[in-house]
Amino acid sequence: MKKTTKFALSGLAAGIAFAAFTTTAQAQEEWTMTSTWPENLDLIKIDQHWVELVNKLAGEELQINFRAGGTLMPGTEVFDATETGSIEAAGDWPGYWAGLNPAFSPLATTTSLFNGVDYLNWIQQWGGRELYEEIYGQFNMVYLPYGITNNESGFMGRTPIESIADLEGKRLRLSGRDQGRVLEELGGSQVTLAGGEVYQAIERGVIDAGEFSTPGVDFNAGFSEVADYWATPGWHQSASVFGVMINKDAWDALSEETQETLRIAADATMAWSLAWSERQSTEATQKFIDAGVTINQFSEEDLARIQEVTNEVILRGACESPDHAKVYQSMIAYLEHYATWRDVSAPYNMSRVMDNLPSLEEIEACL
């Protein structure tokens, strides 16, 4: 009798253990994720870094099958695919969706405002993360910012641009709604091209000059082969943010523990991306010099004028969209608050010392 009971209990325990194992195995989610970036553009490495971390840290519950941009669908379609749940996730640059909501523009980059550390501070401690969640949440998505690159290269082409006076009448490849507006005020005209088309556009003279990303990304895209001149700094994108769009239903299907793991992987990737990009940019700048590319830097007077125009564009855009105003209000409030410590710690501070910011009061009046 005792042996029978013991055997029955052992069998019951084994059955429970097997059922638990089976349930765990069946509970593993498998996601399909793509990106706006094709394999030949280095920005895809930020997406890949996050996916690798998630698959290591959350592998028992979630595995992400990552496909490079353009292999599943055109990069322009990943937003709709993630929103509808055709795929579970996609890496992106928020500025591509500014036509859907102007707030996506400053969530992606700023003209002559934030640097990379500012975005890091703002996202982590000054309310930025919540604004990404709010804006993407309007489209049935959760958003995890996981990439930051600092100042972009600037304009590269076969025509020298030595000052903002040289922008007059120039056709320049430029991303971003606010960026295009500033350029137009300075006398140039914005040409919108996919990143993979910039090389040929410079080579064939379709544009006078173009930009895509940081020096590291631009060099590996071959720009030194077609550009003789480089106008810097890249005031049009003083820093950039990248992240992952996640379908809300797919996110909700995860446990809270796994959701937190994805957030931790995003924060880790964000720190890695900034250092990776700066190292890449440093090495690539020397490669551009070695290739014979002439570097021209905008003067302090030119940059001050760009700041004035930027402030005007920000204020104009704020009153066109409450969401746009809300994001910039948060950004300017951060810069004013951070100045309490930032300015007294110069020259060892981590952000720009600025004495000409867009008016916070005028932005708030648009809310």
Automatic annotation (TrEMBL):
Gene3D superfamilies referenced in this protein's UniProt entry, alphabetically: Bacterial extracellular solute-binding protein, family 7, Periplasmic binding protein-like II
UniProt keyword annotations, A-Z: Signal
Leader sequence segment: 1-27
Annotated PANTHER family: EXTRACYTOPLASMIC SOLUTE RECEPTOR PROTEIN, PTHR33376
Alphabetized NCBIfam families for the sequence: TRAP_S1
Name of the protein described by the UniProt record: TRAP transporter substrate-binding protein DctP
Organism per entry: Vreelandella neptunia
Taxonomic lineage of the native organism: Bacteria, Pseudomonadati, Pseudomonadota, Gammaproteobacteria, Oceanospirillales
